[in-house]
Amino acid sequence: MAFLAALAVLVAGDFGSTFFYHVPQHLWFQLHLRTHHDRRRSYLDHAVLSTDPAVLIDGFLGALPYLAAAALLWRVSWMGALAGLALGQLHVWWRHTGELGWRTPSLVRAALGPLGIVLPEDHDGHHRNPATEFGDIFRFYDAPARALLAALAPTRRRRAAPPGVKA
Ligand SMILES: [Zn+2]
Ligand SMILES: [Zn+2]
Questions:
Q1: Chain-centroid distance, C-alpha 158
Q2: Which of 56, 108, 153, 154 has an alpha carbon within 20 to 30 A of 101's alpha carbon?
Q3: Quick one: pLDDT at residue 167?
Q4: What spacing in Å lies between the alpha carbon of 98 and ligand 1's midpoint?
Q5: What backbone phi and psi angles, to 5 degrees, belong to 86?
Q6: How far does residue 161's CA lie from ligand 1's centre (Å)?
Q7: pLDDT at res. 98
Q8: Res 163: pLDDT
Q9: What's the 75 CA to ligand 1 centre distance in angstroms?
Q10: Which bound ligand lies closest to the C-alpha atom of 43?
Q11: What is the pTM of this model?
Q12: Separation of 32 CA from ligand 1 center, angstroms?
């Protein structure tokens, strides 16, 4: 039961975080784009290890769906709920090691690939091209997330023009 609860925290948390936080941020807001997709800085530093309040808020808002799922599953198995949160946090760190030159061993790739788990190489793709590779932990959220982004694209918030350029 603990295993199922942990899995449910990750599947439900990633669903909530992708569709109710990550996609809306890419469409209509600036916080995540400023904190997680600032190409001038290393993403490991600015997106993961930073103590900048804006970065922490982005991380916290993205983590809220996981916390909500863990709270709901607490009575089912508090150990599983905690394990799910811990695994989710470990995955945040791991998926940002691409920049450190991490190469996923072929055995790990062969084991996790069929489960649709996001590898550091996959998440690196999201940092290189923010229109791709959605889903924090599971890649099967990428296609529906992109479809939702495309469907809502006409409502997209206009990017602020660079200094000196008329909007
Ligand atoms: Zn990232
Ligand atoms: Zn993003």
A1: 23
A2: 56
A3: 40
A4: 10
A5: -65, -45
A6: 24
A7: 87
A8: 55
A9: 31
A10: 1
A11: 0.90
A12: 10
